[in-house]
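[Q] Does anyone have a clean structure-token version of this?
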Amino acid sequence: MDKIELILGQLQKSTFRSRFTLSQKEKLYIEEKGMDIVEKHAYDFIHTRLTPSFIPNDGKQTPMKGHPVFIAQHATATCCRSCLEKWHKIKKGKELTKEEQEYIVSVIMAWIKKH
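[A] Here you go.
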């Protein structure tokens, strides 16, 4: 089992994380835009909202609705630096590396593909 499958399995055991699902509207958005565009959005959101070493509104920067990536971020604990540290062992207080950003987007996209 690879690292992403393992973490998705662990997250699914969390009552809070497992309650997130994609609505019909979000599924339609994915169908209309395509997975490549959704993945590009994921990279953009991660780069602007999570990559900096200090985020003044950490824990509140990811909306709970409005885009499939936002839902996936909450489901996969990639919504803030605190959750990234707790679930993915990515330390707060430092800028995310390109590899860490790629890992986060991979987790998000794997979750979206399953749902």
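[Q] Thanks! Anything notable?
[A] The chain has seven helices and no strands.
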